[in-house]
């Protein structure tokens, strides 16, 4: 017992300290997502122009689904990357689609008029689609592959580099 | 199910879900827009005939176990439930052996019992008579030196 406890007692706190160190060095902003790798939840929503849109009817190889709001400051920061994506990629390859998050269509129209961009945004009354996708806040972007599976989820403002890397790897047929 | 029962059940489920915006508040307590929408999702799903377990499973499927304020006791989550009990048990066992060792070092050995406290050559406690005799005995001052005795005599003399 004596020899056993002489070694055991100094060693015992090590796993506890390791666990504590692991917990304290993790980024609290990085949240788990249960939905990456799963089939994208289907939605049938109205666009800002009044058209009806279903995810299943989109024929692009990659869908970049961007949850955003006109009141969201980081959304302004990432906006040029989305504009560039619509300019660089053909719409049959990559379809950028916005989902308005807790915002009014008028606010969204003013935002698009001010910052530019031609892609469609669907309205999400009751935030149901955002909850279906497990959205925590805006901006959040989902990269949906040809099988309509969520290949990658990006929390926070997108950069062109991230967007390009993810889209290109999906276009090349690989997972993001 | 009545409206009041439905509200009650929806509140119970919402109280178990973490608000994705406030993080340390439940969906029931939070006043954020997303939490309010989640509350109505909970209510609508229950109204459509889902059980509370199915509604919880829907949110776990979207947000992961993180969405539950109280993690399910399975897999790695079991650590949260078992580790404190295991640590307490281990501490208790350790303390038991420690205390046994500490008390064992000073207390009599069990086989000696109370008799072990009495050593054979120990002086028996003095009786009343013996103590009275001692105090009046002429030998009571045997510890004093001759100088001290002389000094005492002088003091007595000066008093007279």
The unreliable regions of chain A are none
Shape of chain B: rod-shaped
Q: Number of domains in the coordinates of chain B?
A: 3
**Biggest sheet layout of chain A:** 5 strands, mixed
| Structural class by SSE content of chain B | mainly alpha
CATH architecture of the largest domain in chain B: Orthogonal Bundle
Structurally, the number of domains of chain A stands at 1
Beta-strand percentage range of chain B: under 5%
End-to-end CA span of chain B: 113 Å
Per CATH, which architecture of chain A? 3-Layer(aba) Sandwich
Order of SSEs of chain B: HHHHHH
* Helical percentage of chain A: 25-40%
Question: DSSP helix count of chain A?
Answer: 6
Layout of helices and strands, plus pairs?
The complex is a heterodimer of chains A (176) and B (160).
Chain A: H1 2-11, H2 13-25, E1 44-46, E2 52-54, E3 62-68, H3 73-88, E4 94-100, H4 105-115, E5 120-122, H5 128-132, E6 140-144, E7 150-155, H6 160-171
Parallel strand pairs in A: 3-4, 4-5
Antiparallel strand pairs in A: 1-2, 3-6, 6-7
Chain B: H1 3-15, H2 33-47, H3 52-63, H4 78-106, H5 128-136, H6 146-159
How would you explain this protein's 3D organization?
The complex is a heterodimer of chains A (176) and B (160). With 176 residues, chain A is α/β, with parallel strands linked by helices. Chain A has a single domain, classed as Glutaredoxin. Chain A is built from six helices and seven strands. A five-stranded mixed sheet of chain A has the order 5-4-3-6-7, covered by helices on one side. Chain A has a two-stranded antiparallel sheet with strand order 1-2. In chain A, strand 6 and strand 7 form a beta hairpin. In chain A, helix 3 crosses helix 6 (160-171). Chain A is elongated. With 160 residues, chain B is an all-alpha fold. Chain B has three domains: 3-72, Orthogonal Bundle (Helicase, Ruva Protein, domain 3); 76-106; 128-159, no CATH class. In chain B, helix 1 (3-15) packs across helix 2 (33-47). The mean pLDDT of chain B is 82. Classes of the chains: A alpha/beta (176), B mainly alpha (160).
């Amino acid at each position: 017992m004596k020899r056993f406890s002489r070694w055991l007692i100094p060693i015992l706190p090590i796993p506890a300290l390791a666990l504590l160190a692991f917990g304290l060095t993790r980024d609290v902003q990085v949240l788990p997502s249960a939905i990456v790798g799963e089939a994208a939840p289907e939605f049938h929503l109205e666009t800002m122009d009044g058209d009806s849109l279903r995810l299943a009817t989109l024929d692009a190889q990659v869908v970049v689904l961007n949850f955003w709001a006109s009141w969201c400051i980081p959304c302004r920061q990432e906006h040029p990357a989305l504009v560039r994506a619509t300019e660089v990629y053909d719409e049959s390859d990559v379809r950028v689609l916005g989902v308005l998050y807790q915002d009014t269509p008028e606010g969204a129209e003013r935002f698009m008029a001010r910052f530019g961009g031609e892609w469609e945004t669907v309205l999400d009354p009751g935030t149901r689609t955002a909850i279906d996708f497990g959205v925590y806040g805006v901006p959040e972007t989902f990269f949906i592959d040809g099988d309509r599976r969520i290949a990658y989820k990006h929390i926070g403002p997108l950069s062109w580099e991230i967007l390009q890397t993810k889209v290109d790897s999906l276009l090349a047929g690989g997972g993001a | 199910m009545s409206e009041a029962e439905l509200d009650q059940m929806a509140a119970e489920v919402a109280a178990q879900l973490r608000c994705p915006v406030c993080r340390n508040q439940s969906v029931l307590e939070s006043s954020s827009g997303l939490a309010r929408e989640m509350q109505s999702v909970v209510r609508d799903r229950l109204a459509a005939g889902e059980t509370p377990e199915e509604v919880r499973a829907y949110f776990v499927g979207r947000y992961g176990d993180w969405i539950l304020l109280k993690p399910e006791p399975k897999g790695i989550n079991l650590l949260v439930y078992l580790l404190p009990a295991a640590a307490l048990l281990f501490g208790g066992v350790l303390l038991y052996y420690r205390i046994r060792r500490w008390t064992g070092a000073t207390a009599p050995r069990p086989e000696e019992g109370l008799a072990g406290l009495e050593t054979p050559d120990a002086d028996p406690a003095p009786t009343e008579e013996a103590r009275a005799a001692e105090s009046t005995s002429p030998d009571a001052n045997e510890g004093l030196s001759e100088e001290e005795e002389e000094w005492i005599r002088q003091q007595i003399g000066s008093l007279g």
